[in-house]
Amino acid sequence: MPESPQGAAGDQVAANLYNVDSSDPGGELVDRTTMDPVDVAQIGALMRAFADLRDVEQQVSEASQRYMKLSRQDMRAIHYLIVADNRGVIVTPGLLAAHLGISAASTTKLLNRLEQGTHISRQVHPTDRRAFAIVVTGETKTAAMQTAGRQHAKRFHAAARLSREERDIVIRFLEDTANEMRLTDEAWAGER
Fold first, then answer.
1. Cβ neighbours of residue 14 under 8 Å, at least 6 residues apart?
2. DSSP for 70-122, written as a single string
3. 61 CB contacts (<8 Å, ≥6 apart)?
4. What domains lie within the chain, and their CATH numbers?
5. Which residues does residue 124 pair with via DSSP β-bridges, in sequence order?
6. Apex CA 187: angle with CA 182 and CA 190, to 5°?
7. How confident is the model over 19-72, as pLDDT tens digits?
């Protein structure tokens, strides 16, 4: 059974995983000597909320993968193909490979697996007879939309409850956070 967001009852470690005073008591990572303790605590609550969201998204993703009997990479491909279908965009194996960041050989294996599972079909490209167009099947699109898609769409409702100004703040915060955390030249991260 999954642990609650605060951890098991009485678990002071789990309850403080995202509290900067607990994870960095000496201030080696974050200098907060000039910050009000109330602000530090509120930032800890924000980090906990981030973790809770990640946990829920992971649970939805894993449940969807089990239901669809597909891997994370397969689900990413299906999502891309659904959006392409909705937008009337023709997806080639090369376009899908670029989106997923995988090789042509890995893309072929992925497409073979998805086609064998009747999740996609390969059709002759309408304007380039030498290429294939990859199309998600109606059954897979419906299954994905009615399961993980429906669950993820609930995020829209949470965002809709915010004012435009609040959404602008959240967008700026999330973009800034992603930019701060982006792996650029960190040697410990290895090649990407």
1. 3, 6, 7, 8
2. --HHHHHHHHHHHHHHHHTPPBPHHHHHHHHT--HHHHHHHHHHHHHTTSEEE
3. 72, 75, 148
4. 12-68 (no CATH), 71-177 (1.10.10.10)
5. 132
6. 80
7. 999 999 999 999 999 999 999 999 999 999 999 999 999 999 899 889 889 999
